[in-house]
Write a structure and sequence with these properties.
64% of the residues lie in helices and 0% in strands. By secondary structure, the protein is mainly alpha-helical. The chain has one domain. The radius of gyration is 13 Å and the shape is globular.
Amino acid sequence: MASPDETLFRITQFGVASIIGDPDYPTAMPVYEGVPSDEDIIAVLSWIKAQCSADIRQKHDQMNATAAKASRQ
């Protein structure tokens, strides 16, 4: 999990190409916009995060805190 939660959510919902602004970006990941609810996407991402080691979860939590602080500035 090398991205903050908000980025992972947006990638899941809108796809990588949309997030990076490159419609030709090659990816096998489908776009899920409008398919699962926002709550379902959050639940899946939370489950995936729960499968990570405590060390990885701690690093990801720090990444989220840094991203939240940057968005408030």
